[in-house]
Amino acid sequence: MHLIIGLGNPDEQYKNTRHNVGYRFVESLLNFWKTAGDFADFKFTKKYKAELARGEFAGKKILLIKPTTYMNLSGEAIYLVEQYYKVPEYNIIVAHDDMDLPLGTFRISLNSSAAGHKGVQSLIDHLQTQEFARIRIGIGKPTVTTPEKYVLQNFTDEENKKIEEVFVLAQTAAETIITQGAQKAMELFNKSEARNPKSETNPPHSPPIPRQVEGQGELEGVKI
User: Fold this and answer.
1) Composition of the chain by helix, strand, coil, percent to 5
2) What are phi and psi of 132, to 5 degrees?
3) Fewer CB atoms inside 10 A, N or C side of the chain?
4) 156-194 b/e with 16+ CB inside 10 Å = b?
């Protein structure tokens, strides 16, 4: 079995925010795979504190997961699922937002640190490993606001178009991870920084900024 996890916040008010691209990505996967095979819709399961959608791809059992514990506590839900199904870390894929990548791009990572992403760090803490694959979906860097506020803002219509275009290629990347492994997917999709031709022209190796900053305030807590 493979677990494909989309990170995000469950409340309706966060549905179209930058922080919820992980949720949106697994939803797009489900919509596509439902047309080609036997996949059930997402259903909340209290036992796992998550919405789950089960099905198969390329003869392999797939479990799509949207944790409902809020971003910073994502690991709580995934730990419950992983413990029950006994899924090895190399069969886990995590999709999430990444401010260090330009909007319109994505990158596959394997066995890498959270780099400040609190949702990813929660997974690492609860699973006691970082040896899982990640599909990091670029959302760009804030220019006029703080990182905490930026990730909780909605995408503009133009930005949404770019995100939807990225999902198409990222879907193929996820399928490659499932069928050929993360290393092969990295060779294929990271060569060109997984850049959409219509994406921003920001240099892919621009210096990173902190994904979120610590501190007090109304945005502190489980939602960022």
Assistant:
1) 40, 20, 40
2) -130, 160
3) N
4) eeebeebbeebbeebbebbbbbbeeebeebbeebeeebb
Structural domains of the chain ordered from first start: 2-189 (3.40.50.1470)
What is the set of active-site residues? 19
CA 144 to each of CA 133, 148, 206: distance values in angstroms, whole numbers, following the listed order: 32, 12, 18
User: Per DSSP, what are the bridge partners of residue 138?
Assistant: 98
Closest C-alpha to 41, from 49, 51, 50: 51
Output the six-digit token pair for 180: 């050929």
